[in-house]
Structure formats: C-alpha cells, structure tokens
Amino acid sequence: MTIPPSPSLFLLDPLVRTSRPGEETADNKKNLLSAKEAFGFPTDLDCDELMRGMALEADLAGAPDLCRLTLRGVPPLSTCIHAVDKNLILMITSFPEVYHRDIYLIYNTIDRSLHMIPSRPSSPTRATVLTARLLVARRQDDDMCYALAFPGSVRGVGSRQEPVLFVSPSSSDSQWEIAKRAEFPDHLLAEKSDFVAKEVFSHRGRGYWMDLLLGGMYCDCVDLLSGQRSVDVRSLGLPVGCKSYLSCRDYIPEVRAFRAVGCVGDSIKFVSITGFLERVNLVDDRMLTVWRLKKDMSWDLDYEFKLGSLREEGAFKGNHLPTSMAPMYPFLSMQEDHVINFALGEYIYQDPEFCFPSTPSFWVRVDMSSKTFNCTPFSLTDASIGCLLAISGNAEGKLAWASSQANF
Questions:
Q1: What is the 3-state secondary structure (H, E, C) of 64-111?
Q2: pLDDT band at 123 (very low <50, low <70, confident <90, very high)
Q3: CB-CB contact of 214 with 199 (8 Å)
Q4: Name one Pfam family in it (predicted).
C-alpha cells in the first residue's frame, strides 16, 4: 500500500508574477484582497493611487506541484515573496519612478488585507549580523499582533557602529523608527564570521536566525514587542554529529540541497543528509537524520534512516524507488510530526569530496510512524527547488487555504 503526497505541505514559488494596471485577469481568477492601506511613507507620495489597482491572485496545488501568486497593478519588475509566517505573506517590490527604496507588501490571509510599508533602513554590516530576511516576531504563535525585526547598526559614541535590531510594530503607523540595542553573539558578527542567516522564523515566542552550516542565534520576541531598549540574543549550535563548515562556500553545493530547519507542530526540527560535505560512495548508504530542539535549547536525535532502508523487504511499504539517485533538498512537513519530504536526483562530483545535485527528478514523502513512502515524478531544476518555500496547508496555516479557496 502506498500513500498519496501530503495534503498538508505546499511548495510556494518565491517569484511573484506581476502585470500592469488594466491588464486582464487570466482564467477569471478572483481578487484575494478586501482592504488596502499604506503606512510610513512621505506625505507627498500618493499611496492610494499606487495601491488602487492592486489585486492578488493564487494558483494552489499540493506538493510536489507548485503554488504561485500573481500581483496585478504593479510594474513588471521583480516582485518576490520575502517571508511567510503563520497568516502573513511578506512580498518585496518597487516603484522606482516615484519612490527610491524597496517596498514591503504584507498580505494577511485571515482578513485578506494588504499593507504597504517602506523597506527597512540600510546600515553598515560589519558591526551586525548578516541576513537578508525579516523576522516576524510574535509573543505567541496565535498572536495577531506582531513586529518586523531586522539586524543593523547605528552610529554610537565616537562614531563607532553599534549593533541594533530595527523594529517595526504592526500597531504603529510609523515604520522602522525603533532601534533596540542588540547583544549579538560576538563570534557571529559579520566582521568576525562567515555567518549568514538565510533561515529566519519565530516559534512559540522566540525568534531564530539560522545558518545551516554554522548554527544560529535566537531571542525572546517579547523583548522586541515590549518597551525595553535592548534585546539579549543568544547563540544556538548545530546538532551533535552535524558537521559545520568554515571554509569558502563557493566550493560546496547550496546548503539547502542537504539541510533544512523549521517548525513542525510544537517543535523545531533540523534535517541533514550525508554525502554532500563528505564522500559516501553508495547512494543507498546516504543517511537522512532529523533532530528536535528541546526546551533547554539542545538538540535531541528524533529519527534517522539510510536511503537503502526504504528498499529493504519488510522495513517500509511503498511504490518503486529509482536506483542510482541521491536524496537531496529535504523539506519538513509542518503539521505531520514524523513525515519528511525530499527529492531524488542525479548528482556529480566536481571535487573528490563534495557532491553537487544535478537533476532532481522525483519527490519522496516518508512517514516514519506508518513506515510507508510514496515516490512521485516531478520536474524542477536544482536552482529553483532550492528557493522554494515550504508552507502549511492546515486551516490556520500559512496561506489559510480554506479562506482563499472560497474565492475561486
């Protein structure tokens, strides 16, 4: 017996399709917006005029097919999904003819509102932590009040740059006016480290900035949402047995090809696949390991298995699993505690040690609780699959599918 692809996992294309005002809506799709409002812009910018023609549409499909958003009423420039958190989708776009900075569009899937705010201020990077991602901070996961936070620096005593977290509360009409002094872990600062936080998220009242090769840092979200002037930021190491990498990243594959981190139910999990930072001659010997973050902020082994174990008689039930292909690009299923998804594909060795993904060709879903798996053909390039956003499909999840589907 095999299991179908998970209905609770969706893969969202980060590139948002755009079209100019007045262009026809394709396939009679409905506009998902019920209200539009702008905050924090100069008074001479006609925000109402900019937003008047905006419409948001969605194409929904369960993994491994892709979900895509279309934003109408904006110039045909690059518009991308910057972050997805609970009921919010943050997009970044621009109107270079009338405004010199990028613009954030925040879509709330519950009330179907769209807020437009300026992008966060720029600042020198050497005295802060490197990331391109905003943190959406909440006191609790179901709290509708939130704050956007971004590491930066301000000029301090003696012209010295001091690290801060710029904060933009959802309850404020003035954006990015708060700069809280941040005690970042010294060894993660840009002037001393190659740390780059590409995975940024909040979970159960804490905000996380993660580098899948070096570890991460976290803070209490209440410090960002309260009136106190400083934020204590603590470091978080990699799981025991998960190899760190300190050398030049140009010589290794994109880290999302073999690692992932994210929220799964009430916990945070970290995934690693062997064979990319160390040579594993047989694809069936490649190990997929999942750790769970404990309350004391240490990692505990959750489960692990070799790819070859899926083929062993009596170990798992499933359909045909292609041979000579390596596991790559792991994705966590946010609402299913013992489910892991990954791609199977060709690979090459450009170096005697480092393995590079070549052609992901199959999508595999493994349920560790029922010992079943399902393998489905799909077609994505290794460059595009590494950029996809894994999102939840539960009723209160990250795209609020029930409310959005009602509009089709």
A1: CCEEEEEEECCCCCCEEEEEEECCEEEEEECCCCCCCCCEEEEEECCC
A2: confident
A3: no
A4: DUF1618
Whether 36 and 49 have beta carbons less than 8 Å apart is answered as: no
- Six-digit token pair at 391? 């999102």
CA distance linking residue 150 with residue 135, whole number of Å: 6
Distance of CA 273 to the CA centre of its chain: 19
pLDDT, greater one: 290 or 385: 290
Provide the token pair at 41.
Answer: 């812009």
Establish how many alpha carbons lie within 13 A of residue 321's alpha carbon, considering only the half-sphere containing its beta carbon.
Answer: 26
Rounded to whole angstroms, how far apart are CA atoms 204 and 142?
9
- Give the pLDDT band of residue 344 (cuts 50, 70, 90): very high
Strands 215-220 and 206-211: antiparallel
**Cα separation of 115 and 13, whole Å?**
21
Distance CA 32, CA 407 (A): 7
DSSP 229-289: SEEE-EEEPPPTT-----S-GGGS--GGGTEEEEEETTEEEEEEESSSSS--SSGGG-EEE
pLDDT digits (tens, 9 = 90+) for 164-217: 999 999 988 888 989 999 999 999 998 888 999 999 999 999 999 999 999 999
Total-model pTM: 0.90
Instruction: For residue 381, name the pLDDT band (cuts at 50, 70, 90).
Output: low
Reduced 3-state DSSP string for 323-382 = CCCEEEEEEECCCCCCEEEEEEEEEEECCCCCEEEEEEEEEEEEECCCCEEEEEECCCCH
Instruction: Express each pLDDT in 284-310 by its tens digit.
Output: 999 999 999 999 999 999 999 999 999
The answer to whether residues 140 and 199 touch, using CB atoms and an 8 Å cutoff, is no
Question: What percent of the chain has a predicted confidence (pLDDT) above 90?
Answer: 55
d(CA 262, CA 266): 11
- Read off φ and ψ for residue 120, nearest 5 degrees: -65, 155
Amino acid residing at 220: D
Nearest 5°: CA angle at 315, between 64 and 300?
Answer: 75
DSSP, collapsed to helix, strand or coil, labels residue 205 as: coil
pLDDT mean over 337-347:
93
- CA 92 to CA 78: how far, in whole Å? 8
